[in-house]
Records
---
Amino acid sequence: MDTQAGAPTGATRAHGPLTRRLRALRNRLNVTDHSDCGEIRRLAEERGALQQVATLVARGSSPSVIFNAAACALGGLIKADYTAINRYEGDRTMSIMAFWRAPGTPDIGPPFGGRWTLGDDTPSAAVLRGHKPSSRASATIRSDIGGWHRAHRIGHAVACPVIVDDDLWGTMTALYLGTDPPECDVEERMGKFVELLNCAIIQAKTRCELITSRARLVTGADATRRRIERDLHDGAQQRLISLALRLREAEETVPPEHRELRQRLSEAVQDLTGTVDELRELSAGLRPPALAVRGLDAALAQLVARCPVPVELNIDAGRRLDEEIEVSLYYVVSEALTNVLKHANASTASIDLEKENTRVCLTVRDDGVGGADPARGSGLTGLRDRVEALGGTIKITSPPGHGTSVVVAIG
Ligand SMILES: Nc1ncnc2c1ncn2[C@@H]1O[C@H](COP(=O)(O)OP(=O)(O)OP(=O)(O)O)[C@@H](O)[C@H]1O
Ligand SMILES: [Mg+2]
């Protein structure tokens, strides 16, 4: 059968409606495909950005690192020119916790040295009133920050509430240069991101509070120790010394014929002198004087000299460290060596102290029986608290039969 090119045959004619439906379906699928791809890509970007931040939280990074990463991740995601994380302060100002700028934009911030007045007409002020996102053209912002926007050609600002533990904590702000308004779904995308970011802030906040409270505990304990040491020195120790002197004077005034009385007084003086020595040693143990006077290196050498197990001491010569770091490292070595004596049955031990720029690394190692377990005592756990309170890390490796190492890194 002859047919004209392009003319429908009976079969195709019969299938015409089906073909049309298939074509329509294919078109719909294509359209759906594209939008799905776009949506999937956006979700993947969003997830990637959040994952970056979540990884930092999981690693226990400091809040400032997390905030900077969040500001950067959000900025890239919503194509902002600048982003900031702001915290509401009690006096109607905002503190900028992080400020990010897109590559290629002028380096303009953070505004007002990082603390700016909230005003009444800024997006963050609107967020404070309504607890929901707010967007404004800079031209309509009369407050100081509006002037700063215009001076730097910022045309639009969008702010999203950051709610932590049911409290309005601050805002995440996106700033856009030029006159074009941001895409209409920016608020929604920011909101979604900020919602997920809250977890990071809560964790960062909790961890930060935890570290601060640990630091308070440790420094509190050190301060108490210092106070007891001073009280012992200035109080009981001095009174015992003067009592011993008075008894010695009394002893000398006893006539020779009262030999027994003289003898008893002399014994009392000896006892008292022994007690004073004991007290002096006790208070010296609370905070080693060598540490205050001659520094960590000398104090460690003194600990090693007193240790019955041979200890090799390797110290990077040089600078003194912060007092609280020196005190902590001293107690790490003191506890680790005490453990060597008490538990390790070791033939040798070693101490290595490396000081590189701002970082300090201390290792105490023994060749004893291994098997150390912090759950069985309080010494090793106390060391962990002490070191982590300074932002450091401690690693205890102690395979049974293969010795123990305690490695501390600070800075
Ligand atoms: N160097 C070591 N070699 C072998 N075992 C060790 C060593 N250090 C610690 N241990 C084991 O780990 C446990 C926990 O040590 P930790 O220092 O926390 O407590 P402790 O020494 O028993 O008591 P304290 O609270 O007085 O320090 C110890 O009881 C001991 O069994
Ligand atoms: Mg111990």
---
Amino acid sequence: MKVYSCETHINHALDMLVAETKEFPIMEQLNDEEKLSTNCSYCEEKATYIVSSK
Ligand SMILES: [Zn+2]
């Protein structure tokens, strides 16, 4: 499972992933190319982070 998130929604994204997977999430920053082409999963902002489970 992977969730993209902006700065505003990173805490929400982490909470959602933990709730759904029951695992500790891995948070990484997107590279510049990915930032430009990826929107936050929770709003219309550009994503800054990707949160994933193993
Ligand atoms: Zn957002």
